[in-house]
Amino acid sequence: MAESTPEVGRSSGVTAQQAAVPIPGAAGSGPISHAIFRLARLHRMYAGQLLRRIGLHPGQELVMMHLWELGAQRQIDLVRLMDSDAATMTRTVRRLEQAGFVRRRPSPTDKRASLIEPTAASHALRREVEEVWSQLEDISTTGLSDRERADALAALERLERNLVQAAAEPEEPRAGR
To answer: pLDDT (tens digit, 9 = 90+) per residue, 130-172?
Structure first.
């Protein structure tokens, strides 16, 4: 059974080397995919800890970033921007609204739609979100040279393009099915 990685920030006496999750045999043919899974989980966990300090949950800051940059948006447009689903975005917007970071107003061009817009309180939050993302970047890339950072970003972008392309192609039947 795989060891679980200790919660980030919790003093457990476990070193970073010991905290690595071993690759289960069934994932042995996908070590990069397993590494991406582990990295994404840890990144989101640590981001969550940093964001909680400023009253946000992971993903909410991304919605706010789009609203700060683009201004008021229809909820369906946020779903597309975030590559999300309607139910998740409804919950996210509701929570941001309850926290006072967004408000809804009727769309002037579509009577059926409302626009989600950032509030003054959210604009005060922007600097803190930028600081959290800067901290997360620094922590994630500690010890990497500028060249290694550029190479890591290029590799991640290539992996993303590969997955986007694969998702856009029709699924072919697999042998043995």
So the answer is: 999 999 999 999 999 999 999 999 999 999 999 999 999 887 7
Alpha-carbon gap, residue 18 to 112, rounded angstroms? 55
Rounded CA-CA distance 26/35 in Å is 14
Q: Please tell me what DSSP assigns to residue 109.
A: S
The DSSP code sequence of 82-117 is: HT--HHHHHHHHHHHHHTTSEEEEE-SS-TT-EEEE
Alpha-carbon distances, residue 68 vs 105, 110, 125 (angstroms): 16, 22, 11
Question: What's the Cα-to-Cα distance from 146 to each of 131, 136, 138, 151, rounded to whole Å?
Answer: 20, 16, 12, 9
**What pTM value is reported for the model?**
0.78
Given a contact cutoff of 8 angstroms between Cβ atoms, the answer to whether 119 and 102 are in contact is yes
With tokens 């393009």, the residue in question is 161
Quote the CA–CA distance of 90 and 97 in Å, as a whole number: 10
